[in-house]
């Protein structure tokens, strides 16, 4: 008889957990997965997929306005929030069903239950049943948190609820300046909402390159978003017709909805991890080694629950390589260096590698190449739009350290650029690559003028 009921028990049906379960099953392991909600996790159900659909919807507003400059006469446009929500829901359901079908096809047993860890090799289901497993994977993701803790904060909504509001908010206030707050602000202002964004810092997108921060702030302002830096809410109250938000500068803003987009924390509470001996950090994230194994050798964790790099493709890669390591006979650790990412505002931000500030801290000599220009489409549309591209180079070895793009389809462009950066390409190799003309991306291989050189924190003229 088998020592355990299954070889691999996965807690969480998001992208990382589903990929790990499917790959493990393909390696011949007996696999079970528990998910108390729909399969697909944050990305498919209430994150990147529905958000990108709403971003697409919002950009038609710009397209309709720009068409006149190209000779088109477009009549009055009308937007239907219920139709967008219904279309989103249909696509989310389709994807969730695909996740389920792929698991079933691979032979994974699915438990539509909440699961907790009872010990190094034991899982409890909320039905009262228990399952023993040779290995356990925790892939429960993260959830939104509301900051600051002020009177009336319970009247705010998170990114979980904003997709399915019964009525479109004509006035929206977003708290926070990270990618979640700004993506929704950028989308909703184009869908017809009057949007205000309040944030404690001086710049949006904390941790991003300063030229991307400045360029995006300017673009959001052109879109009609009321950006209020160095400002925090002190109280939210319900009033006739909506909500009144009191700010620490003495002003108030009346809106229909308040979106609190001030961060996410790992979803580990109540899972029984600490009692099982699994070490957590101060935020509740599970501590793992480079192979995604916790302090308990039979318990593993991938994705946002580890708070390493909280991106869906990272969770998928971590889950895949963990399954290969445990059941495929190959020790495979995830490489978290030079992971590209995108912010799906309008315009988009695409980034890979080091920011200028980080590069200057880590390297003796940093060469900066930067271009800012009006994209070709804007010449006829008349839109106040600017594309910014930046390449950071090790001034000694010529290796490209980081690439940052603000502009149309920056997410698509940065995916291709990330391959070169990950391979250790040099600026000379970028320069030797033939341009595709006319494109905005050709600027990445035609930038020849160094705009700055930094030698251990001292800026020199180019």
> From the coordinates shown, what is the CATH architecture of the largest domain?
3-Layer(bba) Sandwich
Which structural category fits the helices and strands? Answer: alpha/beta
Number of structural domains: 3
How many helices? The count is 12
Main β-sheet description: 7 strands, mixed
Fraction of residues in helix: 25-40%
Key terms:
462 residues; alpha/beta; FAD/NAD(P)-binding domain; Enolase-like, domain 1; 3 domains; 7-stranded antiparallel sheet; 23 strands; 31% helix; 25% strand; globular
Secondary-structure blueprint of this entry?
Layout: E1 6-11, H1 15-26, E2 31-34, H2 41-46, H3 48-66, H4 81-106, E3 109-111, E4 115-119, E5 122-125, E6 130-138, E7 142-144, E8 171-175, H5 179-191, E9 194-198, H6 210-222, E10 226-228, E11 233-239, E12 242-247, E13 252-255, E14 257-260, E15 264-266, E16 299-301, H7 312-327, E17 341-343, E18 348-353, H8 356-362, E19 365-373, H9 376-381, E20 387-394, E21 400-407, H10 410-422, H11 427-432, H12 443-446, E22 452-455, E23 458-461
Parallel strand pairs: 1-2, 1-6, 2-3, 6-16, 8-9, 8-14, 9-10
Antiparallel strand pairs: 4-5, 5-6, 7-15, 11-12, 12-13, 17-18, 18-21, 19-20, 19-22, 20-21, 22-23
Q: What does it look like?
A:
31% of the residues lie in helices and 25% in strands. The protein has 462 residues and is an alpha/beta fold. The protein has three domains: 6-142 and 265-327, FAD/NAD(P)-binding domain (3-Layer(bba) Sandwich); 153-262, FAD/NAD(P)-binding domain (3-Layer(bba) Sandwich), CATH 3.50.50.60; 341-453, FAD/NAD-linked reductase, C-terminal dimerisation domain (Enolase-like, domain 1, 2-Layer Sandwich). Helix 1 (15-26) runs parallel beside helix 7 and helix 3 (48-66) packs antiparallel against helix 4. The longest helix has 26 residues, at 81-106. It starts with 5 loop residues before the first strand and ends with a strand.
